[in-house]
Design a protein that fits this description.
This protein has no helices and eleven strands. The chain has 126 residues and is an all-beta fold. The strands form two sheets. Strands 2, 4, 5, 6, 9, 10 and 11 form a seven-stranded mixed beta sheet that branches. It has a four-stranded antiparallel beta sheet with strand order 1-3-8-7, with no helix packed on it. The model has no long low-confidence stretch (mean pLDDT 96).
Length: 126
C-alpha cells in the first residue's frame, strides 16, 4: 500500500519560512520523481516544484522561484519543500505527489502523478 504523508504546515507571518516534509512508503522512492502542488480555496490545484526525473534536476513554478527549494533524501524516502519569504498568496493546501518512470508528460502536469498525499495546510498572515 502506497502512502504519502505530508507534514510541516502551519500558520506563519508574511516573510517567514516553513519546511514541508513528505514521507513516502510502499513505492520504490529512489526511482520516482516527486513533486509538490498546492490548492488555494476556490482555485484549481497548481504546480509548485518537482524533480524532473529521479535525479537532481528540478523545476519550479515562476511564482516560487528563488523562494522555495525542493529536495529529497532517498535514504529516508522523504521529499522536502523549503519555503522562504512567504507571502499571503502562498496560503493553500500543499500536496506532495509521486511521478513514476518513464515520466510521461511534463513535471507540471498533475495527470502524470500517480499517488498523492492528503495535504498540509499552509496559512500566511499578512
Amino acid at each position: 500500500q502506497v502512502q504519502l504523508v505530508e507534514s510541516g504546515g502551519g500558520l506563519v507571518q508574511a516573510g517567514g519560512s516553513l519546511r514541508l516534509s513528505c514521507a513516502a512508503s510502499g513505492l520504490p522512492f529512489s526511482t520516482y520523481a516527486m513533486g509538490w502542488f498546492r490548492q488555494a480555496p476556490g482555485q484549481e490545484r497548481e504546480f509548485v516544484a518537482a524533480f524532473r526525473r529521479a535525479g537532481i534536476l528540478t523545476n519550479y513554478a515562476d511564482f516560487v522561484k528563488g523562494r522555495f527549494t525542493i529536495s529529497r533524501d532517498n535514504a529516508k524516502n522523504t521529499v522536502y519543500l523549503q519555503m522562504n519569504s512567504l507571502k499571503a498568496e502562498d496560503t493553500a493546501v500543499y500536496y506532495c505527489a509521486s511521478r513514476p518512470p518513464p515520466f510521461q508528460g511534463t513535471v507540471a502536469d498533475s495527470q502524470g502523478y500517480n499517488y498523492w498525499g492528503q495535504g498540509t495546510q499552509v496559512t500566511v498572515s499578512s
